[in-house]
């Protein structure tokens, strides 16, 4: 027990993943070159995928890697290639006062969060199921194709509209 | 235990990082020479002096293919759970999926007709 | 001995089963390094024979130590970092490309007892998802080099790999429908004693092979590395061991995609009389030989045909295969 948190494999993994997400997130905000930011963004996505897997949602975790860490990051890189000329995008350099201000703000924010999180009684699910008793893919399939048929079909409509929109925008760009 | 499988994956991740780090950053500097000169570290351009910057603006087609890729990747994500539960879902699920695939295929056909699938 | 390596799969984690897990992963790493060294040797030998040449024959008996000599040479070569390159990205790009190539091997069932295998319930998706991260490493390597050939090669590679990843993902849907699982262990079990999935899924298999070769950037889809126009493609500026890691990633994927093809379509480790690991090795070797054979036979594809082929031919065929598999099953019912 450390600060009232039991030390198990799960909590250790959680804190490591949280650290990865936070470090990548801070790098994403503070790096100067946009291409470095794209890589940091990939790091954030991978950390989030780890959290999903830790919570027993292995399928969602893999989807996170496939769609976000893979596809969306590459989409970002291609978009940067499209707009970028040379080594631009230097953000205003930080001076001493700015850094100090940011640090104070971060400490205050963390303190406020800690107080709120510690002060709240969270509802605990009574049905303590083993997260891996059944492959999550099957559960998702049953939910998606029985309970949520209409939203599912609407998703395909949305994807089609997105495809058509992408084509229209790209053709305009070319002219 | 099922969850242990992911620990096995984490060990693969760790080994996959350790191998390059050990050979590039620990073992490498001990073995390889390091005598950089201005000519050696200049950009390679078939022996000529490099002209301009490589990072010019790229064709919009690359971005378009990336967009198509994201859309179809999302489609794959929906197809996988359906394929796994295919036997249990039966005819109803099959009908749902036909509608889904047809709608997406219309999007592909639109891109096809507008000649954006060609690489020029 | 095998019980020691299997302990973590069947019971909770203890010190000794964790040790078994770590040693298992190290064994796979050493095995893959050995396999890759000799893949390169056999590729040169096989293509040499097919073209009426001898191939490497100087270092060691029959040239068997050629790859060892090559690796040693790369290890002691200077690591040149171009002045104009983006240093940080230039240094980590080979790692981004290599790590996923090794990680995908964690889910491949090598033997009947699934030793050295993480039997994830999302195994097939795990492979597809992880291998897409390598694309990021390649395009980053090309961009960081700040060289025209590299950047053009990296962009072409990425555009090609994302285009062919879609048919690759769609082509294995038929197999998933037949076996009802994403777990590669279960997919092999569904074929064990039955007909291999290559027979009912021949259409899916053809799409898988074509898309798989394109994902590997190998002939006839090697436009990103077309040496006659792009020098070496995205790793033009890379030297020494950093270059070696890009090459290593490529050849680990050669093994991995062959292992995946065997697992999904050719019955994995199943087969009569011989031990399961030997069956697996024989089938994977046959697949890899096929890849070498294709490289020695086929000319390079034309650039303008490459992208439209994925979107206009392979994706429609793969979608049709899904509908066909579904329809045949519904009629049978």
What does this structure look like?
The complex is a heterotrimer of chains A (175), B (120) and C (333). With 175 residues, chain A is mainly α. Chain A has two domains: 1-85, NADH-ubiquinone/plastoquinone oxidoreductase chain 6, subunit NuoJ (Four Helix Bundle (Hemerythrin (Met), subunit A), Up-down Bundle), CATH 1.20.120.1200; 136-175. Chain A has six helices and no strands. Chain A has helices spanning 9-30, 34-54, 58-83, 96-119, 136-147, 149-174. The radius of gyration of chain A is 21 Å and the shape is flat. The N and C termini of chain A lie far apart (64 Å). The model of chain A has no long low-confidence stretch (mean pLDDT 82). With 120 residues, chain B is mainly alpha-helical. Chain B has two domains: 1-30; 59-120, Up-down Bundle (Methane Monooxygenase Hydroxylase, Chain G, domain 1), CATH 1.20.58. Helices cover 68% and strands 0% of the residues of chain B. By secondary structure, chain C is an all-alpha fold. Chain C folds into two domains: 1-76, no CATH class; 80-332, no CATH class. Chain C is 69% helix and 0% strand. Chain C has helices at residues 2-10, 15-50, 66-75, 87-103, 123-145, 148-171, 173-179, 184-191, 202-215, 227-230, 240-265, 276-297, 303-332. The radius of gyration of chain C is 21 Å and the shape is globular. Chain C starts with a helix and ends with a helix. The mean pLDDT of chain C is 87. Chains B and C meet through helix 1, helix 2 and helix 3 of B and helix 1, helix 2, helix 4, helix 5 and helix 6 of C.
């Amino acid at each position: 027990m450390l600060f009232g948190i039991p030390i198990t494999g799960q909590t250790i993994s959680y804190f490591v993943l949280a650290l990865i997400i936070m470090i990548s997130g801070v790098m994403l905000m503070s790096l100067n070159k946009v291409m470095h930011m794209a890589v940091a963004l990939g790091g954030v996505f991978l950390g989030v995928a780890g959290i999903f897997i830790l919570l027993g949602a292995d399928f969602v975790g893999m989807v996170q890697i496939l769609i976000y860490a893979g596809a969306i990051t590459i989409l970002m890189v291609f978009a940067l290639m499209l707009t970028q000329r040379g080594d631009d995008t230097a953000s205003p350099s930080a001076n001493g006062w700015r850094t100090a201000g940011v640090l104070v703000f971060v400490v205050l924010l963390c303190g406020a969060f800690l107080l709120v999180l510690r002060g709240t009684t969270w509802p605990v699910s009574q049905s303590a199921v083993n997260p891996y008793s059944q492959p999550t893919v099957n559960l998702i399939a049953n939910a998606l194709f029985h309970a949520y048929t209409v939203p599912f079909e609407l998703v395909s409509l949305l994807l089609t509209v997105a495809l058509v929109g992408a084509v229209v925008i790209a053709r305009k760009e070319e002219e | 235990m099922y969850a242990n499988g992911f620990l096995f994956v984490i060990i693969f991740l760790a080994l996959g990082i350790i191998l390059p780090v050990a050979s590039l950053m620990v073992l490498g500097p001990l073995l390889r020479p390091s005598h950089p000169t201005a000519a050696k570290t200049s950009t390679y351009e078939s022996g000529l002096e490099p002209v301009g910057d490589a990072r010019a603006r790229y064709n919009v087609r690359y971005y378009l293919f990336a967009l198509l890729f994201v859309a179809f990747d999302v489609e794959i994500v929906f197809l996988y759970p359906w394929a796994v539960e295919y036997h249990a879902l039966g005819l109803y699920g099959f009908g749902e999926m036909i509608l889904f695939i047809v709608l997406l295929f219309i999007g592909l056909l639109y891109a096809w007709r507008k000649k954006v699938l060609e690489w020029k | 001995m095998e019980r020691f390596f299997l302990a973590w799969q069947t019971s909770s984690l203890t010190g000794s089963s964790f040790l078994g897990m770590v040693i298992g992963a190290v064994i796979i790493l050493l095995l893959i390094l050995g396999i890759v060294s000799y893949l390169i040797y056999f590729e040169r030998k096989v293509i040499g024979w097919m073209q009426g040449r001898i191939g490497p024959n100087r270092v060691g008996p029959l040239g068997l130590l050629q790859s060892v000599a090559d690796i040693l040479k790369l290890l002691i070569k200077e690591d040149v970092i171009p002045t104009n390159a983006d240093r940080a990205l230039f240094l980590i790009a080979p790692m981004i490309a290599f790590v996923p190539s090794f990680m995908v091997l964690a889910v491949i069932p090598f033997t009947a007892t699934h030793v050295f295998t993480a039997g994830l319930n999302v195994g097939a998706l795990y492979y597809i998802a992880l291998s897409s991260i390598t694309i990021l490493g390649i395009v980053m390597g090309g961009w960081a080099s700040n060289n025209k050939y590299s950047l053009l090669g990296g962009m072409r590679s990425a555009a090609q790999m994302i285009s062919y990843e879609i048919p690759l993902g769609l082509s294995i849907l038929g197999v998933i429908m037949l076996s009802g699982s994403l777990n590669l262990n279960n997919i092999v079990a569904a074929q064990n004693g039955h007909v291999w999935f290559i027979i009912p899924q021949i259409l899916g298999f053809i799409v898988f092979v074509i898309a798989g070769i394109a994902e590997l950037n190998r002939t006839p889809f090697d436009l990103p590395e077309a040496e006659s126009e792009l020098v070496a493609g995205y790793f033009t500026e890379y030297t020494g061991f950093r270059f070696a890691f890009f090459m290593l990633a490529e050849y680990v994927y050669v093994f991995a995609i062959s292992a995946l093809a065997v697992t999904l379509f050719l019955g994995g480790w199943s087969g009569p009389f011989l031990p399961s690991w030997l069956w697996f090795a024989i089938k994977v070797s046959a697949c890899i030989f096929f890849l070498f054979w294709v490289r020695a036979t086929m000319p390079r594809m034309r650039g303008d045909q490459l992208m439209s082929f994925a979107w206009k031919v392979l994706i429609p065929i793969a979608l049709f295969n899904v509908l066909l598999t579904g329809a045949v099953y519904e009629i049978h019912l």
